[in-house]
Amino acid sequence: MDFFQQEFTKAMEAFQSQKIQIQVQQPDILQSLGISKDCYENLRKLLASSKFKDKLEKTETKDLKKYISDFNKLEANFNVTYLMICAMFGYDEKGLELIQNGADVNQVNNEGLTALMFASIFQNDDFVKMLLENKADIYLKDRRHMNALMWSVLQGYEDIVEILLEHNADVHCKTPNGLDALHIAVEKGFTKIVEMLLEKNICVSSKSLDGRTPLMRSVALPDSNIAKLLINKNADLHETTYDGKTALHISVICQNCKGISLLMKHGAKMNCKDALGMTPLMFAASVDNAQLMHTLLDFGAKETIDDVNKFKQNALCWAILRNVKNIAHLLIDAKSKTNIFDINGYSPIQYASKNKCPEIVEKLLKDKSESWHTSDEYLVCLLAAVEENDIETTRCLLNFQNKKHILSEIFETSGKCDSTSLFTAVMSGNKELVKLLLDAGADVNAVNIFLQSPLFSSVLEKNLDMTKLLVQTYKAKVNLKDYRGDTPLILAASTKNKPMVDFLLKRHASRHLTNTQGISAMMEAASSGCRDIVGALHCEGYNLELSDSQGWTPLMFASFSGDHSTVEFLLDVGAKIDASSNLCATSLIIACGQSQEKAVSVLLDRGASVNAKDLNCQTGLIYAARNGHKAILELLLRSGVDVNQADVFKRTSLMHAVLNADLESLKVIIQHKADCCLGDVNGITPLMQAAYMGFTECVQELLELKVPVDEANLAGNTALHFCSSWGHLDAVAILLLHNANPNVTNLNGDSPIMLAAAKGHDEIVERFLNCDLCDVNQCNTKDGRTSLMIATHFNHLSTVMLLTKSKVHVNAKNKSGNTALHLSVMKGFTDVVKHLLTVQNIDIHSENFSGMTPLFLCVEHHQYEILELLLKPGNDVKKTNRFGQDVITFSIKLKSLAALQILQQRCQISPAEKNRYLEVARRMSYFEIVDFLQQWKPSVNTQEADNIAPFTLQASIKKEPLPDIASMTVNNARSSNDHDLLSTSMEQQMDDSDRCSVNSDQILNLPIDDFKASPLFNLSGDWRGATINANIFTDRTRNCIIGKENTLSDQQS
Question: Can you give the pTM of this predicted structure?
């Protein structure tokens, strides 16, 4: 039913769209020109009362030159010259005087109009002659491409047209719309002017922009004389517009019978079609004009009566679609084809059924045969008539003689498809239609795709009269079930329809049936709070403990709805008060969960178990606390409920009140001796939860009850931890006033001030700083970080500034030996570094346990902006770390040219230092660094550095294989005891020009036994042309490089 309705509606909308495309004519394309003329008429009226025109009128002709300085000046307010004013008002003598005194006869205004055009517009033929005699240009065009001839034709001034034609005016001039003088004259119906133009051999077949010829315009006129003139001049009768319409189409659209007769007599073709396949007969069929139809039929249109357009619709379809009944009858009588289907799959009789045309339907039925059922055509007709509540058409369709044969075939192929019409009639509430259909054999118990019979529809529509008709008269079954298992009685109860329920019960509807979810009619009534329906459905022996698939009984549904009268009734008739659902919920728990105070009161008065729990161990008290229903809380507490009962997460009603920030409920529960120290499964107490939420009133209330202020949960967090981390300043202040310990740490080693610093809660940090008990230098028990380090780590500049103003130890180190400055450098927090450098006693040379100072970290982490900040005057750039390495050497080993460039600008080196740095770079084969260092000019005043190798290698007495340097990385090197040496193979260190016999070198990285005074090894050999003889002492030399040709002897052996 719905599918057909949608499809049929689409078809009708498609037709309406076609009708608009075909029927709507182009607007009068001369309209814009007419408006222009009206504008100049208004200008003439405006000028008539102006000083400009008054001056011209009062000035003597001989004095014009004396009083008018510039004859060709356009008056700004009117856009005309004096000559144009003369042309408008016919001042011939003054106009001639102006011309003789120098006025430009061809001067144009801003619209391109000349005096000749103004004279033509305002029918001043003498002025036109005078202008032409004074060499006015007859061929000039205005901005609309209109010349003087076209303006005179537009106004129908025959005398001026004749004058202009005598002076050889251009008859072929066209506007951008393709209009010439002939088009204008025909459109306006000026027969005499048309004759004059035709005498000048103007083109009779020219097309305007819309594709129309003068002949097409002429056949739209009631007078056919112009059309005759054009036809006599051999105008093409078969020429088409750009949408394919001929002159015959247009004459039919304009309902011009004279034009049709004229065209047909001169050989027009009746079978012509436009771009949409529309014939003249189709256009005629869409209007209620019998004379027009007869005219076409008389001239042979019957030959095209069965032609179809691109939508596969013939003329009969159009007549029926437009609901033109007289024309439809004419076409049927003329033997038009009736068994035709359009592009939407619908036939004329289907459209007639939809348009409430019983007479046409009856006439079309006579031509119907057994072909009905092939496309369900009959059923579509029947359904369309029923949907429109059209009794006459429905009766007509049901009474035709071949109906029984067709329906029997439909039953065999499609089942009870005709029930769709019955459903539609029932839903519309039209009893007469329903009777017609049922009397004709429709099945009252037929079901739709939802397994619902018409009775279901009448119940859902709450139409009791229709229900009585179906059940009493036509014996509809009252205990059918739809796809959800609902019966009509269940649906009536769910819609709160007491009269419907009473009637169905009298007709033996079963009150015990349930749907697929186990819900009965009584459950539906109880859930809706319908006490009267529940009473009607109850009878002796009714099982009140019958439950649905969730285990809910009628009493539970009534408790859910909160209808206390229904609850009382069910209890009076024996419903079990403490019966539980599949989730162990009792009626009391359900009522509390839905905040049904009256139902709760009734259940408590009747002795419901107040401490019953559901599957989640939640009692009615917990549900009331969750819902914040103070009245129900008081009812339950007065009934002796266990106030400390907890749910599966060990949350009591007090905890739920805190979770809801419900202070009133909280106070009620506390007054009944609730244990305020009970924690949940995570050890969180009400105080902690209130602190976490910033529920200060609750915090205050609980602290006044002397709850343990420093109690911790399973993660070691106290209430002060929670409010500090979440930024609740008021809660922090209250807890500190009640002597909360600010130095207690959680399992992660964090104190409250550390959590506040990590989140950047400055107000809370400041509150701790003002607390005498708070240790601002307390370290995290796991990683050794202080609050300052934590604030630095998270780039909270304002917090860092706040902490450094207090007694915080700015150079304190964590368990990795890093200070706050180290951390800020590694993270690249420039603003924090800037501030820390302003702090008194900040140590920029502080080393972590890896020997890394902030300067070293800048190089390693490419923080060059921070490096420049650290290299302020007074800072010793060449200060070495515990491994004897300075920042320049470190930069060389990390191949950080950018760092070296900054260091070059900020420090000076001696020649000896330069040589040592070059030696390091060469050994590392960093030739780009070598080039840079060679260009670094040392200072002669720089004191020689100590003659100590800038890097060392720790030797080992253990006889282990030499490590593969190729596999070593910066991190690997730093993880060993030697954090300084970064080297590659000697083969990579030398370029082609500096390569010697040494093919490869290896690095020896062995731990040294510092307790031995005698040399461990003796090294002798040749390296880069130099002889090396050296003893290796553990207290002076830790690194050595040996070439392939060198020898190493163990002095221990």
Answer: 0.66
